[in-house]
Design goal:
The protein has helices spanning about 1-10, 15-25, 35-45, 55-70, 75-110, 115-135, 140-170, 175-185, 190-200, 200-215, 215-225, 240-255, 260-280, 285-290, 295-315. By secondary structure, it is mostly helical. Keywords: Cell membrane, Membrane, Transmembrane, Transmembrane helix.
Length: about 325
C-alpha cells in the first residue's frame, strides 16, 4: 500500500511539490521544534525526492547565515566577549587535537588522504563550511566532497537529537551546554539548533563561541595551501560573521533597536528550524551507504574524542 502511494506521488510531481512545500511551511510555525523539523526532513528524504533540490541547497546556506545574523540582535557586546574569551583556549585545543588525531587515523586506517583532511577539518571546525573552504585548496573531487559532507551531516543530525539529553544527564548549566555544543558539534545549524532546545542562554553562548570557532577556517585553509604549495587565493572568509558582530553592536549601543530586536530573534529561530528541515531532506540513507566503513569510523572516532574531551574539560573547570 505504502509503495503504491509513493509511486503515485513520484508519477505526479505536483503532489510531490505540494507535500514538500506544506511541510516546509509547517516548519516555520511555532508548533514545530528544531528536532521535529530535522526528523521530518530525514523521513521525507527516505520517501520522496526533494523537488527543489538545487534551490533548497542554495537557500539553506543563505537562510542559515541570515538566521545567525538575526540571533545577534538578542545578544550584547559584554556577554559575547566574555563567552568568546572563555571558549578560546578550549576551541584552540580541541581544533589542534582533533585535526592531529584525524590525520593520524587517516594514515592508520588507510583512508584516502583528501577524504581524511575533509572529514578532519569538518569535525574540528565547522562541518560543511570547513569542507567547502578546504576542498578547492586540496583539489578534492565531487565524490570525496560528498562523502565527507554526507558523514558530517549524518553526525550533526545525531548530535541534535542526543546532545540535549546528555546535557541534562550531566546537569550541565545553560552556559556549560552552550560551550560544549559549540566545541563538540560540527555544523553551525546543529550547534544553534541543539542550544536552542536547551535554552536561551545556551543559545547565546553557543552561537558566539561557534562563530569564533568558524574563523579558524582561514588559518587552516592557509596551512593546507602552504603544505600543498599552492596559493591561498581560493580561501573563503565567512563574511556573515562580521554582520553577526555588527548586529550585537547595534543591539547593545543603539536604543532604537529594541523595537525590532525581539522580532529579529523570533524570525531567526523560525528560519533556523526551516534550515534544519531542509538539511534533513538531504540525508538519504541509501546514498549514505556509499560512504564506506572506514571514513565513517574515522568521523565517529574523532567526533567521540572531541565530544568527550571537551565535556571533561567543561565539567572539571572552575
Amino acid at each position: 500500500m505504502i509503495e503504491r502511494v509513493l509511486l503515485f506521488i513520484e508519477e505526479h510531481p505536483v503532489i510531490n511539490k505540494f507535500i514538500f512545500i506544506a511541510l516546509a511551511l509547517l516548519c516555520i510555525s511555532p508548533i514545530v521544534t528544531p528536532t521535529i523539523a530535522l526528523a521530518l526532513g530525514i523521513v521525507l528524504a527516505q520517501l520522496i525526492k526533494n523537488p527543489f533540490e538545487e534551490v533548497s541547497s542554495k537557500g539553506t546556506q543563505w537562510m542559515l547565515k541570515a538566521s545567525v545574523v538575526g540571533l545577534g540582535f538578542g545578544m550584547n557586546v559584554n556577554s559575547a566577549l566574555s563567552a568568546g574569551k572563555e571558549g578560546f583556549l578550549l576551541t584552540v585545543a580541541s581544533i589542534g587535537l582533533t585535526l592531529t588525531l584525524g590525520l593520524l587515523l587517516t594514515k592508520f586506517l588507510g583512508i584516502d588522504k583528501k577524504i581524511g583532511k575533509l572529514i578532519s577539518s569538518g569535525t574540528a571546525i565547522c562541518g560543511g563550511s570547513a569542507i567547502a573552504a578546504v576542498s578547492p585548496i586540496i583539489k578534492a573531487n565531487s565524490k570525496q566532497i560528498s562523502i565527507a559532507i554526507g558523514i558530517v551531516f549524518l553526525l550533526n543530525s545525531i548530535a541534535l537529537f542526543i546532545f540535549p539529553s546528555i546535557g541534562h544527564y550531566f546537569n550541565l548549566t545553560q552556559h556549560q551546554f552552550g560551550m560544549w555544543s559549540a566545541v563538540a558539534i560540527h555544523d553551525t545549524s546543529s550547534v544553534v539548533g541543539a542550544a536552542d532546545i536547551y535554552g536561551d542562554e545556551a543559545l547565546k553562548v553557543a552561537t558566539t563561541v561557534k562563530l569564533a570557532r568558524s574563523l579558524w577556517i582561514l588559518p587552516l585553509s592557509v596551512v593546507f595551501a602552504a603544505i600543498g604549495k599552492r596559493g591561498a587565493g581560493k580561501v573563503k572568509i565567512p563574511y556573515f560573521i562580521g554582520l553577526f558582530i555588527l548586529a550585537i553592536i547595534v543591539n547593545t549601543y543603539i536604543p532604537a533597536s529594541e523595537i525590532i530586536a525581539p522580532y529579529m530573534v523570533i524570525i531567526s529561530k523560525l528560519l533556523l528550524t526551516l534550515v534544519l528541515f531542509l538539511i534533513g531532506t538531504t540525508l538519504n540513507f541509501s546514498s549514505l551507504k556509499q560512504v564506506g566503513a572506514k571514513p565513517l569510523l574515522l568521523a565517529i572516532s574523532i567526533w567521540a574524542f572531541v565530544s568527550v574531551f571537551s565535556l571533561f574539560i567543561i565539567l572539571h573547570s572552575a
